[in-house]
Amino acid sequence: MKDFQHPHILGLLGVCFDTPDNSPYIILPFMANGSVKNFLRAKRVHPTNFDDFPVGLTFGDLVRMCMEIAEGMKYLTDNKFVHRDLAARNCMVNEEGMVLVGDFGLGTRCVQYRVLQKWRKY
């Protein structure tokens, strides 16, 4: 995670080991708008109505956000890294509205892989 250098990947700033409970804390950049999930929910007129289009965002803004997530995921793939938990809750929005992919807790390096298929008889 410390080696990732991309505009749409949430990079690691540091690790703190001097903590009261002796467990390491990771230090990440501050994301003013939180997760994509909470950001989009906050833009709804009625928070419980899933048909509402987010107020203050255009269709182009939503497509741009999707493209930024896709670019971040492509970067991870190019670096042989599998995220394994891509979700709106794990993508963060900074104060400029740019989306960064984060939360690599389930991620893993992909040194070699196999494609598994389930064969069906028709």
How does this model look, in words?
- With 122 residues, this protein is an alpha+beta fold.
- It has a domain at 30-109: Transferase(Phosphotransferase), domain 1, CATH 1.10.510.10.
- 22% of the residues lie in helices and 13% in strands.
- The protein has 2 helices and 6 strands.
- The strands form 3 sheets. It has a two-stranded antiparallel sheet. It has a two-stranded antiparallel ribbon with strand order 3-6. Strands 4-5 form a two-stranded antiparallel sheet.
- The longest helix is centred in the middle third of the chain and has 20 residues, at 59-78.
- The N and C termini lie far apart (44 Å).
- It comes from Geodia barretti (Barrett's horny sponge).
Order of helices and strands: EEHHEEEE
Briefly note the CATH topology name of the domain at 30-109.
Transferase(Phosphotransferase), domain 1
CATH class of the domain at 30-109 equals: Mainly Alpha
**Which descriptor suits the 3D outline?**
globular
Strand order of the largest sheet: 1-2
Q: Largest beta sheet, briefly?
A: 2 strands, antiparallel
Q: For the record, what is the CATH homologous superfamily label of the domain at 30-109?
A: Transferase(Phosphotransferase) domain 1
In helices, the fraction of residues equals 10-25%
Work out the helix count. Answer: 2
- Going by CATH, the architecture of the domain at 30-109 would be Orthogonal Bundle
Q: Report the C-alpha radius of gyration, rounded.
A: 18 Å
What structural class do you assign from the helix and strand content? alpha+beta
Distance between the termini: 44 Å
Low-confidence stretches: none
- Indicate the proportion of strand residues: 5-15%
Number of strands: 6
Mean pLDDT across all amino acids = 84
